[in-house]
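Practice problem: LysM domain/BON superfamily protein
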Amino acid sequence: MDIYITGKNSKGNDQKIQIPIIPEEIESSIEGKFAEYDIYKLGQVSIPNGKNLSELSWECFFPGEARKGMKFVREWTDPETLDALMKYWAKYGKVVNICITGTKINVDMLVSEYDSTIKSLNDYYYTVRFVDYEKISVSSASTKRSTKTTKKKVTVKKGQTLRKLAKKYLGSSKKYKVIYNANKKMIDARNKKERKKHPKKKISKYTIYKGQVLVIPVPSSKLVSNSKVEELKKAMNKDGYSKLKVDKKLTSSMKSAMKKITIRTGRKGQVVKFVQKMVGVKQDGTCGSKTVSAIKTYQRKHKLTVTGVADYKTLLKMIGG
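Answer key — structure tokens:
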């Protein structure tokens, strides 16, 4: 079995590479179901069919020149060259073809993640993840997306700043300019007066004052109502996390209860079973290594912080929040 990857290089030419060392494990996802295939230790086992393959990932290393000629090296290529090519494909979202001989995998994918570290003997240890590529036809007519917002009025208290208000109401202090732009005329007028009163005092254009009433454009919260919410509520109640009314609505009480949950290695219960169902592993109610690995894959796929722990944000994503 060999792995070949073909894609356009920085000069626009097709370049085909052979992965010099077969990874010990290949992790795959087919239509949302995840599995790990132990290639090196057990030989070729139950390799997934290329059809409907949505993710493919592995960890391995590109061998340095000192390993050139060793039996386990398929075909040696300068690791710096391989590393640069993988980074190029990942950075610019290039479509690559992955062909694994001895299997039915011969698919076009995108390099969604690639990280590498140089270690001893100039080996490049790397982690790579590929995601399914689908051709998307875009209409020539431009389309506009509108994000619904609600306007919230807030009276400024002593010690508050635009950054503090942005963190509290918009989720990030970096969004302070959103509040400034929504109240620009009033804020600028007040600061102009203050500069006249105190000509020697340096006053930032973003300064606000106690008693000012600011309008904050807060994104409208999405109404979530589905069977997954109902299922998680039942599981939370059985595990003692909450005493919620079991229905399909995501409520503030449910969110508060969810913030107390962290499904990590060793945890047991109905919520663990719910998480296992969502990540596509056996629902035995115990969070073991396979569950943790599947949670990490789910988090990568949905652009969450990869921790292997099903916390509030991960659970929220699982129920469509």
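Discussion: The longest strand covers residues 106-118. Students who identified this feature from the tokens alone can consider the problem solved.
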